[in-house]
Structures are given as C-alpha cells and as structure tokens.
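Morning!

This is the sequence you dropped in the shared folder:
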Amino acid sequence: SLSCGGGVVREVRQITSGAQHGGAPCPAEMKRVVACNEDPCHSLDCQVSSWMDDGACSKSCGTGAQKQFRRVLQRGRGGIACDSYPLTRVAACNPTPCQRPPFDPLESGR
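The structure's back. Tokens below.
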C-alpha cells in the first residue's frame, strides 16, 4: 500500500494446528485489513507552545528578568525542525520605574 497518507495492509492467518484435547477452537475470522502509514505525505513544521513564565520576575519594579519556556507540541517532519526554535529565554519584566520616597528635610539633616 502507501508509505504515507494512509494505506492498508491485508493480513491472512492460517491454521497450523487445530484445537485438541478440549482446547479453544480456532477463530473464524482468518483475514483482516489494517490501516497503516497514516502520517500525511506533506512536510510538517515543528510547532511550539506560547511562551510561559517560569517563576516570578526578579524585580517588583524597575525592569527585572523573567525566565520563560515553551514546549514542543509537534515534531517537524521534512519542514522546519524543532531545534530551530529556542525553548527557553529570559525576557524583561516589570518595566514600571520604582517610586522614590518623598523628600524629607528632617531625614536629610536640616
């Protein structure tokens, strides 16, 4: 049948020894057709998930670093390979500047 895109294989069995001494009888069905090679014939690119955070941002304000990861959803076959996609990265996070405390002349020694 076909090497890709779906095909069938026909299987045939033969009785080599019949049931004896009270053993179970041979099955009535001696032929069957089984699906095979069900992968599509066209190439498939690797598919990866969206980026997901791994833990918390390193800073609560003032631009920190956020570890991220993604997973392989489908391995490529004949298309773009999965090793073309990074699975981990560090992204900037919390870019909001930290608030400064208000000026206190007593604290500054005046």
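Headline: The longest strand covers residues 7-12.

More detail when I'm at my desk.
O.
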